[in-house]
Specification:
Helix content is 12%, strand content 41%. The chain is mainly β.
Length: 1480
């Protein structure tokens, strides 16, 4: 957008360019002044070039046009005064980002308005005089006059220059300027607890405002006055930070702004903590200090720490710790930060963090190898911070195809431009079954799901330039690896990247150094619009491989307002021919990747710029570049050293690669000794030369190697390390405990102690004793007792002084060093013992600790007393019980030096003590042993007795926790085995085998095995006489083995009558051989016999084409498998053989029959649900010309016969539908198939047994079609009925009442009506209640339908019966006229009428007569009679016409009323005659 006005005048086109510019400059003020004080008219005209504004003065002397807008410019905003005249441009004011900016804008609004008014008035001062000088007159001039005018014009130009300089000085636009730092703030380093102040001095007009930021966050000094103080005096500004602590280490920005612009400057403050000794690392715990803000010192404790974690790609993994902050302050929470490889993690779709107030949790969603690394939890409080770290390993997901590589990782985008980006990644740890051939790069536009492959051929380097992007669009990328087996899964997608100019991206990322003021600046229009751009500079080759070359350059200085694009040209070394590379479309970015260059050839390159005006001159060419890989593979790392760490980890050190550029990191691989399978230890490369490999198997021997990677690929693997067994690193033993006095004399004391609970991973080689004297409660200095280590747990301290008290302490020693001393013993007096009972036993220890048992062993006391020790008593108690909790384990004295304690509570802790006994009595108890936890260690193995294939009996004990120097020690009855002729011990890799040389009764006893240098791993096995006998039997079976058979020998009949004799072996080896024998004669494979032994299934089989008479006998299979043998036989003789021979011949005949048309299923019958009888069969191997004939009783059923309609054929099935069968359908039915290949016939005998079978099936269908029994009430009684689909008289139906057959009588009857089966109960009584069963014969037993006529069913049925009965009685006895009366009576006047009606009713009804609905009474004219209760008569004497009408005989009793109606018509004879005459 431009704010300038161009002066366009036809009479001044020949003026000097400089004078044109001067007039143009002055005219802009002239127009602005005139437009602000005078009334003008303007018109806006639209054209293809933009908006043209013309301004006409009053006098019409000058016409000045506004310059047209560029094509891509937007229409400017025009400012109007109250008279709608243009007074300038309006700059859109955008909303600021911060509240501070809004306040600043409002405060300076009035100043700017006032300065604008002064600015316009000042310009009017110059324009008023300049207007006269700008007028132009046209006239003829002489040469002399022209020269004079030129001189005057030059003088006028100098005058205008002076005016211009003065105007610039007086122009407020020059007096005001953007802020600038006169003195910038300086970074400072201070000690913790001190104050620091940042100073700066700022110039600018109008007076700028200042804001301070910490790590781009605005500092609110008023809200945090205890921490910050901000001062501003006379353009000098300061920020004071009080009582600095670690969290004040940051980058501080001072941002100043006014209406002309903004500027910022940064300074770094580093806060150091004073500490003697080694400087702590970034995550080392710091001493907690006092927090003056809260008045306490916070102490942080991290509990429930997460261990080293393992996850697979695609899974979700959560780790966390419990954090306790003391003291607890309301509304105060610590800051919890998670780090991966010392980089703080931010919440994203892949990383979720949660702080519940007492537990910090980190959740990694959809794990990828990028998530592998060292994770650190850092808890920041006002007093300091605490950290905890552990490694998280991410294993590769299962590959979709065997042998393909795993997915690459760490895909990132670099050097993004308008249409170009460089994608980098890291190679995976596993290449697959073959080396990686290259990589495919895919891109996807953000917002879509379409992935497009960027490269047609795989690239070897882990770096690729992607071109062809669309400016302004966002993309994500992923990478796939390729080897000979296929393509890997894609990597995790990169972060989105926008294809745009780097300078625009920098502005977007950085944002304003201070909040944006919302101002837009306008400059004078660039006169270079439409100018061909200059040549680019600094064209260099930034990357060069054998696959591509990347060029980079700087844009030209001269390029106008338009954006420029570029053409790239190449030239082969030794030629002068330049060839344009991108002929189709110029590129927008100052980067370009060239592909398809000839490897080994040298090229030079140059670049041309272009815009709408044309193509510029080429840049200077580059030096000749030979196409080829510039980055070489790293050299192999040096020697690898592995040291023990824990049970499942080792520490690996190696020498860094000496020749390597741009190292990405190292991959470590491990391999179990004896195999050739290398597994990755890390799936994300590490740059250090030390790595802790976790997740290894305890006790397994491993070797390691390392390889380096850079963008070019993998180095050769380093030399393999020495083999190392994974187990705990050796440490010094734990402290010795239980120092006690075993015996005392005048000048010596015998001391004893307990072995350390843990020997540190190596055998204890000995002990050192120290002593000191104790006098009057004052202890002396410690002195060494023995210079050479003692190997036992007792020592005789000699040369002591009698009656002097001593204290002793003991140290244990192993190969790692000497342990800390034990706790000092109690003060012991050197005084000769005079007691008679034995001293305390020594050397108590426990073996074979299980959930409910343990074995306690000991050594005899050093002091026996006056007589030898003859037994021991063992006591125990739970560790939490008091002294009263001691109880004896046994009642009788134990004369052995060991005892197995049983009936312990699983999970409980116990302590033990032992007392020795002699003839004088029981001595003092030994030192307490324990506490011992009654719990079986995970992974504990017991001794297993094995008998191998050679019959050798042995005992096997395995240990998965072998440490360095660990050994298996076998003993019998817990004593060392002295007779080595009985057992042979063989040890190999965590397993020990004790082999019985000659098992006998001498070997009976308890055998135990202890693994030294472990935490008491041991087991025992008691060999009894019964157990020995069983083992000897098994040994005999193994020495003389028999091959087991899985099945007995069997025989099968196959197609064509072929016979198969077979069996299956259960256990055999590949060397097993079979011998086939028939009647003691070996048979071999030939024409008659075929043999086969399938060793994959163990099936042995022999085939014979047919059975002949000579094949009767015994078939035997003899097997030999090494020293194992097996025999199995099949006897085939007598009736069994002849039966099998017949079957074989039949099968062969069947095969012959099936070569022509034949019946697959012979003729049979079926009864349909509609109870139609259907004869059916299935045929096979028929042709269109195959003829089919049906016969009944030997007579062919011809097509014209009626029964021919019953024949059907469909899909290889033939049917004959008899329909509802009757005895006339009985007969013999036949079907015959016939063609040139042969014939076949099937017959079905539908007589006698066949007919009965059909009827039985029909009975079954009918019986099963019967419905459930329903009840129906009638006036006569109750009817039970059921319906069937069809009924035939031959179907038997029986009825039962209470499971007793019902005899037919007048009252109870059974019958069939159509398809209804019924039982009628007339006049039912209470005796008729109960269960009724209908038994329908179904050809076998019968189908029963049951109805319980009792309860509600009886009540409802009986009630309905009574209702219907009452209704029937009423209907039967009601009064009614049953006849005798006509409908119409015609009678001549004067005659008498006599009518009699027959009446019925019980009781006898009442009778009355009515005429025209009026009752008639007997009189002389009407004679009414009712005789015998049945006959009612009416006599009308001498009828007249008045007697004509409607009459009715009404009868009525208690059951009802009925009327017998009739009509009487009386006529006069004369009238009749006259009617007849009239008709004639």
């Amino acid at each position: 957008m431009s704010g300038s006005l161009h002066l366009m005048h036809k009479q001044q086109e020949h003026h000097h360019k400089e004078q044109q510019q001067q007039q143009h400059y002055e005219s802009s003020y002239y127009l602005s002044t005139r437009s602000s004080v005078s009334k003008k008219s303007y018109s806006s005209q639209k054209s293809s070039h933009g908006v043209k504004v013309t301004v006409q003065t009053k006098k019409g002397q000058k016409e000045v046009e506004l310059s047209p807008l560029p094509k891509r410019a937007k229409r400017p905003y025009l400012a109007m005064d109250t008279d709608n005249e243009i007074i300038g441009y309006v700059v859109p004011v955008f909303r600021a980002n911060h509240e501070a900016v809004r306040g600043l804008m409002e405060a300076q609004h009035e100043e700017v308005r006032e300065e604008g008014v002064n600015y316009v008035a000042m310009r009017n001062l110059f324009i008023r005089e300049a207007r006269e000088a700008m007028e132009v007159k046209v006239e003829k001039k002489t040469r002399k006059r022209h020269v004079i005018e030129s001189v005057e014009r030059m003088a006028l130009g100098r005058t205008l220059d002076e005016w211009t300089e003065f105007r610039k000085k007086m122009n407020p636009d020059c007096l005001t300027h953007r802020p600038e730092f006169v003195v910038k703030p300086r970074g400072q380093t201070v000690w913790e607890g001190k104050n620091v102040t940042l100073h700066c001095t700022v110039a600018g007009w109008p007076k700028p405002r200042i804001a301070w930021y910490k790590n781009n966050l605005l500092i609110d000094a008023k809200a945090h006055s205890e921490k910050y103080t901000v001062e501003s005096n006379y353009n000098m500004h300061s920020l004071e930070i009080k009582n600095c602590d670690f969290f004040d280490t940051a980058q501080y920005h001072a941002s100043v702004l006014n209406v002309k612009g903004e500027v910022s400057c940064a300074a770094t403050v580093v806060v150091k903590r004073f500490q003697d000794g080694e400087i702590p690392g970034p995550f080392d715990p710091k001493p907690h200090g006092f927090s003056p803000e809260h008045g306490v010192t916070f102490e942080t404790t991290i509990l429930d720490k997460f261990e080293v974690a393992f996850g697979n790609e695609g899974e979700t993994l959560s780790v966390g710790c419990t954090v306790i902050i003391y003291p607890t302050i309301k509304q105060y929470q610590p800051e919890v930060v998670w780090y991966r490889d010392s980089v703080a993690l931010k919440p994203s779709k892949w990383v979720h963090t949660h702080w519940s107030g007492d537990r910090a949790t980190l959740t990694l969603v959809h794990l990828n190898k990028e998530d592998e690394g060292m994770y650190t939890l850092r808890v920041n409080t006002k007093s300091g911070f605490d950290t905890y770290s552990a490694y998280v390993f991410v294993r590769d997901a299962e590959v979709e195809m065997e042998g393909v590589p795993v997915a690459p990782l760490d895909v990132h985008c670099h050097d993004a431009n308008k249409d170009y980006v460089v994608v980098t990644w890291k190679q995976p740890a596993v290449e697959g079954s073959s080396s990686i051939l290259g990589y495919y790069i895919d891109r996807c536009e953000v917002g879509t799901h379409h992935w497009a492959q960027c490269n047609d051929s795989p690239v070897k380097y882990a770096r690729f330039p992607v071109t062809g992007l669309v400016e302004g669009r966002s993309y994500v990328f992923r990478v796939r690896a390729l080897n000979r087996a296929g393509v890997s899964r894609p990597s995790r997608v990169s972060e989105p990247i926008v294809a745009m100019d780097p300078s625009d991206r920098a502005r977007l990322r950085a944002g304003p150094s201070a909040p944006w003021t919302g101002m837009i600046k306008f400059t004078e229009e660039d006169p270079t619009v439409g100018v061909i751009p200059g040549e680019p500079s600094d064209v260099v080759v930034t990357e060069a491989t054998k696959s591509y070359v990347v060029l980079g350059w700087k844009p030209p200085i001269q390029r106008g307002h338009e954006g420029v694009m570029y053409y790239i040209e190449k030239c082969i070394e030794g030629t002068d021919q330049w060839q344009r590379v991108n002929t189709g479309m110029p590129v927008k970015s100052p980067r370009y990747a060239l592909f398809d260059l000839a490897e080994g050839k040298a090229y030079s390159f140059r670049v041309r710029c272009c815009n709408s005006a044309g193509v510029g001159e080429p840049s200077a060419p580059t030096e000749d570049i030979t196409v080829g890989d510039k980055l070489e593979l790293p050299s192999a790392p040096g020697s690898v050293v592995v040291t023990r760490n824990t049970d499942t980890s080792v520490v690996i050190f190696w020498e860094a690669s000496k020749e390597v550029k741009h190292l990405v990191g190292y991959y470590i691989e491990c391999c179990v000794v004896g195999t050739d399978v290398w597994e990755p230890c890390n799936n994300k490369p590490v740059k250090k030369t030390r790595f802790v490999c976790h997740g290894l198997s305890t006790g397994v021997n491993y070797i390691f190697r390392v390889k380096a990677i850079n963008a070019a690929g993998y180095s050769q693997s380093s030399p393999e390390s020495e083999a190392v067994v994974v187990k705990h690193a050796v440490a010094v033993p734990d402290n010795v405990t239980g120092v006690t006095l075993l015996e005392a004399a005048k000048d010596y004391m015998m001391l004893g102690w307990k072995e350390p609970a843990h020997n540190g991973g190596a055998d204890v080689r000995g002990y050192f004793l120290d002593y000191r004297t104790v006098k009057g409660g004052v202890v002396g200095k410690w002195h060494e007792m023995n210079l050479q280590a003692v190997t036992s747990t007792s020592y005789k301290a000699e040369n002591l002084k009698e009656n002097v008290f001593y204290q002793f302490q003991v140290r244990a020693m192993n190969m790692a060093g000497v342990s800390k001393p034990s706790s000092p013993s109690v003060a012991l007096e050197c005084k000769e013992w005079t007691i008679t009972v034995p001293g305390p036993p020594t050397g108590l220890h426990v073996l074979e600790v299980r959930d409910t048992s343990a074995v306690v062993l000991w050594e005899p006391p050093v002091f026996d007393g006056r007589s030898p020790v003859n037994g021991y008593y063992l006591d125990l108690k739970e560790a939490s019980a008091g002294d009263e909790g001691w109880k004896a384990v046994h009642e009788k004295v134990n004369k052995l030096k060991y005892m197995k304690v049983t009936s312990l509570k699983a999970g409980a802790s116990y302590v033990f003590r032992l007392r020795a006994q002699n003839l004088a009595g029981v001595g003092k108890p030994s030192a307490v042993l324990g506490p011992i936890l009654a719990q079986t260690r995970p992974g504990t193995h017991e001794i297993v007795v094995d008998v191998d294939d050679d019959g050798v009996i042995s005992m096997i004990f395995e240990c998965s926790e072998m440490a360095e120097g660990s050994e298996f020690i076998w003993s019998k009855n817990y004593q060392a085995i002295t007779d080595t002729s009985r057992l042979t011990i063989v040890n190999e890799r965590g397993k020990s085998r004790a082999i019985f040389n000659d098992p006998s009764l001498e070997d009976l006893g308890t055998f135990s095995c202890v693994v030294t240098n472990t935490d008491g791993i041991s087991s025992s096995y008691t060999l009894t006489e019964e157990g020995l006998k069983r083992l000897l039997d098994i040994s005999h079976d193994h020495k003389f083995p028999v091959i087991p058979f899985k099945t007995d020998m069997a025989i099968d009949l196959l197609e064509k009558g072929c016979v198969r004799i077979w069996t299956q072996v259960e256990k055999f080896t590949s060397a097993c051989q079979v011998e086939y024998v028939f009647n003691d004669a070996i048979i071999t494979q030939g024409k008659k016999y075929t043999m086969n032994f399938d060793k994959s299934t163990g099936i042995i089989e022999m085939f014979m084409d047919s059975l002949e008479v000579t094949d009767e006998g015994t078939f035997t299979f003899n097997l030999v498998d090494g020293k194992a043998k097996g025999t199995i036989s099949l006897v085939l003789i007598g009736e069994e053989f002849r039966e099998l021979q017949k079957k074989s011949e039949f099968e062969r005949a069947e095969w012959v029959r099936k070569q022509g048309p034949h019946f697959v299923e012979y003729l049979d019958f079926a009864v349909t649900p509609e109870c139609d009888v259907l004869l059916k069969c299935k045929i096979g191997n028929v042709k269109p010309e195959t003829e089919i004939f049906w016969y009944k009783d030997g007579n062919e059923i011809a097509e014209e016969d009626e029964e021919a309609n019953k024949i059907g054929r469909q899909n290889g099935s033939l049917t004959f539908n008899i329909g509802k069968i009757s005895k006339k359908d009985a007969g013999i039915y036949e079907v015959e198939l016939r063609d040139e290949r042969g014939k076949d016939k099937s017959m079905f005998n539908l007589t006698d047994a066949g007919y009965q079978a059909v009827m039985n099936e029909l009975f079954r269908v009918i019986a099963n079609s019967s419905t459930e029994i329903k009840v129906l009430s009638t006036e006569h009684g109750i009817v039970l009925h059921s319906f069937v689909t069809y009924y035939t008289e031959e179907q038997r139906v029986g009825w039962l009442h209470k499971d007793a057959k019902i005899a037919t009588s007048e009252r109870v009857k059974a019958g069939v009506t159509g398809e209804q089966l019924w039982l009628k109960i007339n006049e039912p009584t209470e005796k008729d209640k109960g269960k009724y069963t209908m038994d329908i014969f179904d050809g076998k037993d019968g189908v029963k339908r049951v109805f319980d006529l009792s309860g509600k069913a009886w009540e409802e049925a009986f009630e309905e019966f009574q209702r219907l009965k009452a209704a029937a009685i009423a209907e039967r006895n009601r009064a009614r006229v049953i006849g005798g009366l006509p409908d119409v009576v015609a009678i001549q006047e004067g005659k008498s009428l006599n009518l009699t009606g027959n009446v019925w009713g019980d009781p006898v009804p009442e009778v009355s007569w009515v005429k025209n609905e009026r009752e008639l009474l007997p009189d002389d004219h009407y004679s009414l009679k009712f005789e015998h209760g049945k006959f009612a008569s009416i006599t009308i004497a001498a009828v007249t016409t008045a007697d004509s009408g409607k009459y009715a005989l009404l009868v009525k009793n208690k059951y009802g009323t009925e009327a017998g109606e009739f009509t009487v018509s009386v006529y006069i004879p004369e009238d009749e005659e006259s009617k007849e005459e009239g008709k004639e």
